[in-house]
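Review box. Two proteins, two foldings.
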Amino acid sequence: MRYFPRQVVQRALADETLHGRMAFIAGPRQVGKTTAIQRFLAHRGQGRLLYNWDTPTVKRRFAANPGFFVEDLPQEQDRPWVAFDEIHKYPKWKNLLKGYYDEWRQRIRFVVTGSARLELFQRSGDSLVGRYFLFHMLPLGVREVVGEKAREAPSWSPDAPSPIIPTASPEVGRALEGLLNLTGFPEPLAVGTQNFCRRWRDNHTSLIVGEDLRDLTKIVQVRKLETLLYLLPERVGSPLSLNALRAPLEVAHGSIRSWLEALKAVYVVFSIPPWTARLARAVRKEQKYYFWDWGMVTASGPRFENFLAVQLQRAIAAWNEQGLGPFHLHYLRTKDGAEADFAIGDRSQVRLLVEAKETDTVLGPTLATLQAKVQAPLAIQVVNRTGVCVQKGRGLYVMGADRFLMLLP
């Protein structure tokens, strides 16, 4: 089965990035975290230094000797990597990691992989503050699918005043088609059939709802949460009204909000808020929700928009993890109905506006207006076509998805 090299591993495990800290790599279940770290360690002759805390072998070794991994360290290698996978399932994992790091950081470099649980403790007091950097491994992008040739092409970043628009090879178009029709998760994309992808998706969703949500939350009404999960795809692309979901779910507003937060915590969905700075009459409350697996959305137009949302989140994670940010993803919507699907901004300025159009290469009437209102240096109407790139004004383009995605890291 084909392996897709993950860019985040090179970014996260570089000495010039970490400066002695631990690397935490979080992301959706089955997105390829464990496989990527296995290959990274094996390439360095350190393959046996990956420890899965879900296995009885590791549990037994830990019970006999909490510092069991030190026994496996190669004598001839200076500061080898030790990887802990699923260590968050140990009840006192934060204090345990703190002790490991404080005692052995001069001898060992640590990388920790796991689900969204790795991020939860950031919201409260944390004994690991100052000891790690957090990175995100998200569903695949075009550059990872195409491979080394694509990654050699320079990408754009929000601190660049104007982009150099890249060309896109036929391989990019094929990668785009495969991603859109299947998913950004490595296994079903590598198999490449709709039948396998559907069965994988059903299993993946059942695993998350049946195990991750059960372990992470105190949610009792799991069946109603599943109903919410199947109500969301038809609402992708529009600001989500929680009040509109109360009737079909027959629960209170607060329950729906907590369920959505739980689905975000286990990387099923993510939300983006409206941009409100420097925009008169902006919508200020309702958020949009998207799936990390855009294949959950069956309608082609919303699926394309969801796909672009994930690709933009990937880019923002890369920029922020390189120290270029902080950047965040928003949408623009005024009370007059003018809207742009996506806005990438820092704390004060929109750097990029994106409008998703499945096939329409005619520039919509509102994108240029919103670009002027928020003074965004770049605004792009992205269409699900290949080879298209037409400049409509200063920093204003209609562009095919293949060429647009080659702009992103």
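Next protein.
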Amino acid sequence: MRGVNILTFTTLYPSAADPSNGVFVENRLRHLAAAGFAQHRVVAPVAWVPPGMRDHPRYRRQAAAPRHETRHGIPIDHPRFATIPRVGMTLAPALLYAGAFGAVARVKRDGFDFDLIDAHYFYPDGVAAVMLGRRFDRPVTITARGTDVNLIPRYALPRRMIRWAAANADGIITVAQALKDDLTAIGVEPGRIRVLRNGVDLQMFRPADRDAARKAYGLTGPTLLSVGHLIPRKANELIVGAMPELPGVTLLIAGDGPDRAMLEALAQRLNVVDRVRFLGRQPHEQLAALYTAADALVLASSREGWANVLLEAMACGTPAIASAAGGSAEVVAAPAAGRILPERSAAAITQAVKALFAAPPARAATRAYAEKFGWDQTTRGQMELFTTILGGAGACRPGV
């Protein structure tokens, strides 16, 4: 007899060169692995970068990703796949399948005879995973995580391929009820979709010495925090835009991306540059100190799946102010958690900050709220789904 072998397949996975990419997928897998239900391997393809572009800041991390590595005891392969500008969205599943096929075949040939492919992100990853499942005659599960089902289905051909993948997958997971609703809206049978939300690492993110954290960042007054990529859908300009009406408040922005220059110029134009601090991209393990130092986290996104930063902040005792995008309203669902914005605007953020600061929840209450969102329930849900798909095999089936 041998144990169940699960192959995780996704382009959203950390590497030594890009340790923040898809860390939420790795966190879920780590907790599943700790349960001892199965053995695990990961195939996490990375887009191929032409030699002449490998030093470009935009592509440097993916170019530097190792072909093979081990993280937290789990072996990972990073095969390269081609991308084609302009027509890339249409061809992406086929190109991803072609780039990953050899790596998946090697994993099997080297002795990891996987029983199931567990894919994350519906398009193109989930579509390519179903293609791989058919080729290797293995069941496939797909987890929807956000943009893959609340934006990409607006395009006709990707929408058809997402529906095809959903119809041919053996299990479908979403990380929020809102994403289940998105899949149902494009014709996926709701009874086939299981909601298994992301959890939060309650050991990594927990209350700490707040005075020390604030001293480390040189903070003396009320402080807001934004964490994430500086890209249009995160709408950090709304948070910066609220600052003129929040005198004495400091805003820390942890992240980097194409919007940084615009945001810096906006802070200058609004005469709040002395109260808006750009910290750049922060290692995941250092975020706890930032959450601890802040009085509130602000997330103004136009689209989200299940925003991990919300629970991470709450686990450190820091309430959140968030738009109602995606699953955020499912996370910020009690006064101890913070506030949901009635609309996405600088004025709404200003009013929410003033109201929260006038009557803040006890930090211990915010932590207690976050403690309801550990990983145990999600891990149990995965094990139940995988066991059902594998015919009740549980943790073992006859070896080949």
